[in-house]
Write a structure and sequence with these properties.
five-stranded mixed β-sheet; single chain; mainly beta; globular; 38 strands; about 550 residues
């Protein structure tokens, strides 16, 4: 591992680096047209832009401005950042700086990875993005390291190990900078790992704190586990959290329990499938809300936690929104974690009949009650939604002017039978057998969905047989952008769902689109290149001939 010397690091951090920015710039990202300095286009991850030069009236004239190969065939599920005319893109094995106007590569820094690292990964070889501050780019690596890189020349400033990849730990998410601390999570919930969040010193990479997402013996919440099950209990933190600087709270979702077999773990298994609010300076959990207590279906609670303001009982409330994999859309007061609403958005949900608003707990069906009570099951059951969820990781967009959410949703179930788990390092730790997928009657496994979080009702759907696996971007131009696993980058009418434009990028799209302005021109950028866990496990014949090959596409309007 190559790093700078202490003197070199000090000089690098003291020098005025190209593309330097401040915490104030990160806070104002959503209102800054020329830059994209945060994952989610703002600490609240609304993925909404006030830019309107590209709109319903002219989007048909959108054409490629440039395209740059990323020189690999792995999944390009990443969000570019853009600072002072330079775009920064992460892949699993490199970090790139690109001239945003011309698409020419300025520098590329490879990442040295162990030859056997792929054998210990659950769900994809990729990087979802980075964080930037004061001329330094921060990213994670699939072998569970955290890095600081000079934005001026791509040189590594420091690199630290978060965990041992051979124990099943990995990292694919973008870090979060909050309250002067760099915060990262961890992947590996299928490998008998114990989840955590880490806080790092931005300048040195020294560990400031670690918060385990599963309590140890004698700690608060440990009583929600069967004895001696916590240390392999899952609760990974594999997506990026959000931050409210006024409340000085970080919000982070946790994933499935390990093993998936709920009866083996016992009880609620805190803090799996939960929303955590933490103090960024100390990592202390201030409040929590568990969406799927004891989760037996891999209904991760890691999906993005979007911050916004909504009218509740006649007054405006600062809320947190999550479209959970379990099929329910949650709205919480983000100051105290109080549940404000929980409505079903999944088209078919048979594991629960609803959410009890007094207790905040799901109302289990007899099927789920039986699964929770019995380690072994004789026959396969059919659970909806499947382990892919009613919505997977691909982040939604929230338009604060319309108070409307746009998200890519899923609609298929799974056949599953439970058995006694056996732990083996480096192998999946599930405690069940998957018997295949249960198909929807109309054959439409997914949809682009417009959702009203105030009324808890669907506004419109754009159904699709192969689910969209890309992030969603909405704009003041009345547009919703997303991509298809079959290669099309698309723009839809935000009011009706009508498709207004599309462009074939040549490989499946799982990237996170962003829009930005340069010299008075609005641009839209997305990465293309799909090699998804859905493509591998979903049994979707429509993707059999979709070629790999990752690249960055940037579009603009022609006169």
């Amino acid at each position: 591992m190559k790093t700078t010397t202490a003197l070199g690091l000090a000089l690098a951090l003291a020098a005025p680096l190209a593309g330097a920015q401040s915490l104030a710039d990160l806070r104002n990202d959503a209102a800054t047209a020329g830059d994209v300095t945060t994952y989610g286009m703002g600490w609240g991850q609304q993925r909404y832009s006030a830019l309107a030069k590209i709109n319903k009236g002219n989007v048909k004239r959108l054409v490629p401005a440039w395209n740059l190969s990323l020189d690999n065939s792995s999944n390009a599920s990443t969000q570019p950042l853009l600072v002072n005319g330079v775009m920064y893109v992460t892949t699993h094995n490199a970090t790139l700086a690109i001239d945003a106007e011309t698409g020419k590569q300025k520098w590329k820094t490879p990442i040295e990875l162990p030859a056997d690292v792929n054998g210990y990964l659950c769900c994809g070889i990729h990087s979802r993005g980075a964080a930037v501050l004061d001329g330094v780019l921060y990213r994670t690596t699939i072998d569970a390291h955290v890095m600081a890189i000079s934005m001026a020349d791509g040189k590594t400033l420091w690199k630290k190990q978060a965990a041992d990849y051979k124990q099943g730990y990995s990292m694919t998410h973008a870090p979060l900078i909050a309250g002067g601390t760099l915060i990262t999570g961890i992947s590996g919930g299928e490998y008998g790992t114990r989840g955590f969040l880490d806080g790092w010193d931005l300048k040195t990479g020294d560990k400031k704190w670690r918060t385990w997402t599963i309590p140890g013996p004698g700690e608060k919440g440990s009583e929600t586990w069967n004895a001696d099950r916590y240390d392999k209990g899952g609760a990974p933190t594999w997506l990026t959290g959000t931050y409210d600087p006024e409340l000085n709270l970080v919000y982070w979702g946790t994933g499935n329990g390990g093993p998936w077999n709920a009866a083996w773990r016992g009880k609620d298994s805190l803090y799996i499938c939960s929303i955590l609010a933490l103090d960024p300076a100390t990592g202390k959990i201030v409040w929590h809300y568990q969406t799927s207590p004891g989760d037996p279906y891999d209904h991760d609670g890691t999906n993005e936690l979007v911050l916004g303001d909504l009218p509740v009982d006649g007054s405006s409330r600062k809320v947190l929104m999550q479209a959970s994999r379990n099929g329910f859309f949650y709205v919480l007061d983000r100051a105290n974690g109080k549940l404000l609403s929980a409505t079903q958005f999944g088209k078919k949900v048979n594991w629960a009949t609803g959410i009890d608003m007094k207790t905040g707990r799901p109302i289990d069906t007899p099927m789920t009650a039986s699964v929770r009570a019995n380690v072994e099951s004789k026959d396969f059951i059919e659970a909806w939604p499947s382990a892919f969820g009613a919505k997977n990781w691909m982040p939604m967009s929230f338009d604060p002017t319309k108070r409307r959410v746009y998200m890519n949703t899923l609609n298929f179930g799974m056949k599953v039978k439970y058995n006694t788990p056996a732990y083996k390092q480096g192998a999946w730790y599930l405690g069940l057998d998957l018997g295949g997928w249960a198909e929807p009657e109309d054959g439409m496994r997914g949809a682009l969905t417009a959702w009203d979080p105030v009324t808890g009702k669907r506004v419109w759907d754009v159904p699709t047989p192969t689910p969209f696996w890309a992030g969603v971007l909405s704009t003041a131009g009345g547009l919703v952008f997303t991509g298809a696993q079959t290669g099309e980058f698309m723009a839809f009418d935000a009011d009706t769902g009508g498709k207004l434009w599309q462009f074939q990028t040549g490989s499946g799209i799982t990237g996170l689109p962003v829009t930005w302005e340069h010299k008075g021109q609005q641009y839209v950028t997305v990465t293309s290149g799909a090699a998804t866990v859905y493509g591998f496990l979903g049994g979707d014949a429509r993707l059999a001939q979709m070629p790999a090959g990752s690249s960055v596409w940037t579009f603009k309007i022609i006169d």
